[in-house]
Amino acid sequence: MNTQEGGWFSPKALERVNYDEYICDKTAPHFGFTSWHDWFIREIKDGARPFNKDENEIINNSESYPYYNTPYKNVQWKDEFWLKDYRYSL
Fold this sequence. Notes:
two-stranded antiparallel ribbon; 2 domains; alpha+beta; elongated; two-stranded antiparallel sheet; single chain
């Protein structure tokens, strides 16, 4: 976790991840994350990603990391999907 090219805090990476949405200290080394695991399960600030189940039309990712592939459309509450060998549902 570094600021070098290809690092998690490189300029390109900072363009992709909006750290204003997360509970972190951008002035601390590694934004205060103590490990890869700590970064990967970082907490989202209240209100950063509002969700209205009545208007739900799309899942763009299952985690708090930017998706890299086309989102699923027209997902139903009863639908199940698999990610990293785990079954998920809404």
